Amino acid sequence: MSRANTHNTIGIEQLKELLTKYWGHKEFRPGQERIIRSVIGGTDTLALMPTGGGKSITYQLPALAMDGLCIVVTPLIALMKDQVDRLRRLGIAATAIHSGMSYHQIDIALDNCVYGDMKFLYVAPERLATEAFRLRVDRMKVNLLAVDEAHCISQWGYDFRPSYLRIAEIRSKMPDTPILALTASATELVANDIMDKLHFAEKHIVRTSFARPNLSYAVRHTDDKNEQLLRIINNVEGSGIVYMRSREGCEQVAEFLRENGHSASYYHAGLPHLERSMRQEEWTSGKVRIMVATNAFGMGIDKADVRFVVHYTTCDSLESYYQEAGRAGRDGKRSYAVLLAASDDNARIEKSFTSEFPPLEEIKNIYEKICSYLQIAIGDGLYASFLFNIHEFCAREHIYAGKVRAALKLLQQNGYMTLTEELENPAKIMFCVGRDDLYKIRIDRRDLDHIIRTILRIYNGIFIEFRAIDERELATISGYTVEHVKELLKRMWQMRIIRYIPANSSPIIFMDEERLPIQDLYISPETYLHRKRLVEERFDNMLAYLNNEEECRSVVMQRYFGDIEAKPCGICDCCLAARRKAKSTTPDLRQSILEMLREKSLSPRELSREIKHDPADVAHEIEKLREEQKISTTTEGKLIII
């Protein structure tokens, strides 16, 4: 049976009015209306939707149409902040609680949800277990519980997070509230597990198509990726993204593109927050044509006219590839998703897979080193969060960062600690001396005295705990520049008047359990082996996609996400190759090659540039002409007619 069915009076016209008013759309995207109607009807719903399919509207719109508050559980803090900012810009009251906030900030946010007119509360899953949240949620009027990345609740999923299991406890406090679980990837086993773990009243799945009819997928096998990249950029107009695995690679490829006359910038997590925002804005506005980036780039991108996405290096899974490639062509116009594959990529992927699973004893040692690095005593740390500079930690301990990330993933899946994505953290200060002692200190600079008085006027509780401060606010009120405020704060730090943590960008570790002695730490071998099998399966599927030359790439992708009735797209490289083969275009290509070589000798690369055919077809035909001894290669590497 469906749950409370009190909102059936909300008609389609009312929903479309809200859609137009807040999002500027006159019609729903495929699948959105079915999901929204299901939720408004009070039915627990599992929605399988591709990334970029407009899933946020499926819970935001019905929540707006109903009385009360919508709670949204999501592990992606960057997405959480982005959604809250967007809703506020639309004039909709929204807030969030996550590991990057102080207890005081969380208290204010939760009180606003109980006593204010808040419409949306975004919450990180690890916060569900805290006493502050559990006490307040009983007093909230919740109209919908939305669970993003719902596959994280299933131990059969590739990204299981024990903190997601707490959602069932929260659900029990609101038995008449419908639940909407959203995921872009779930096998039948995982889908059933999600509905079971979230205590669905009855099983109900709404699937939307993972097909992107306007997106042409292709794989280019080459050991000269720069050359292939230039061919793509020269042949496709409009803006694009080039994805890399490493920060250094981003900078090098962006420089290479600029040297070849293209407007390009780079983006990775090593850049300061302000710099990243500025670069994203330059690309979004069209001042920069091409962004070369790690997968840190993409969250919250609202640019519909991306014409191409090139993966310079291979992804570790089809989930990641589909999500990143799908940032092309959201306006419905023809766009291209190209994966560049070198002959050594298979070996690199195999190596990456092996590094994902350090021995169990190494995981325990990394746990102990992290706790010591964060200065957490045995028995302490429950539900506390700590800034964690993984690069500094790895340099100090001489451990490969990939191994640490793999260990943290397994520690998270066993319920010990969670590493969040990188956050922009505000500056924090705390006075080292008492208020009375502060006035006894001889301060011989008027500007120091003025900034201290300004701090005391606008921040309270600053003598007993670290408080987040806004250096721009201090500058505005004091009349100083931001740079001078920072210089004064550093001076007071040196004088030991305050403790000062400058604004920084860092991931956060959230302790799901108190620190345990290493002998009490238990990493389940079953969890370890199960995750290893799942990751191996994901790698194998990525390699199969990479090496496939026969089947439509869109069909391969859709079948992976559970659509067994997928139809060939007709525009991917495999479909186009099959069409060319059916039309027997080889004689035309052969004739073109021979005619050009009669005029002058050319290298295979020069020939490929001149002929308007797929480079793979040109290479194949050259090889056949060689075998038939109709052409040969000179010592200078030029092709000539025999």
How far is it from the N-terminal to the C-terminal residue, by CA?
79 Å
Shape: globular
Tally of extended strands? 23
Mean pLDDT comes to 87
Q: So how many helices? A: 26
Percentage of residues assigned to helices? 40-55%
Q: What does the largest sheet look like?
A: 7 strands, parallel
List the uncertain runs: none
Estimated share of beta-strand residues: 15-25%
Overall structural class, as computed from helix and strand content, comes to alpha/beta
Rg calc: 28 Å
What does this structure look like?
The protein is globular and about 95 Å long. It contains 26 helices and 23 strands. It is α/β, with parallel strands linked by helices.
Key traits:
single chain; 642 residues; alpha/beta; seven-stranded parallel sheet; six-stranded parallel sheet; 26 helices
Give the topology, please:
Blueprint: H1 12-23, H2 32-40, E1 45-48, H3 55-65, E2 69-73, H4 77-89, E3 94-97, H5 103-115, E4 120-123, H6 131-137, E5 142-147, H7 167-171, E6 179-183, H8 188-197, E7 205-207, E8 215-221, H9 225-235, E9 239-243, H10 247-259, E10 264-267, H11 273-284, E11 290-293, E12 306-311, H12 318-325, E13 335-341, H13 345-355, H14 360-373, E14 385-387, H15 390-397, H16 401-413, E15 417-419, E16 423-425, E17 427-431, H17 435-440, H18 446-458, E18 467-469, H19 471-478, H20 482-494, E19 498-501, E20 504-506, E21 508-511, H21 525-547, H22 553-560, H23 573-583, H24 586-599, H25 604-610, H26 615-627, E22 631-633, E23 639-641
Parallel strand pairs: 1-6, 1-7, 2-4, 2-5, 3-4, 5-6, 8-13, 9-11, 9-12, 10-11, 12-13
Antiparallel strand pairs: 14-21, 15-21, 16-20, 17-18, 17-19, 22-23
Helix pairs in contact: 1-3, 2-3, 5-6, 13-21, 14-16, 19-20, 24-26, 25-26
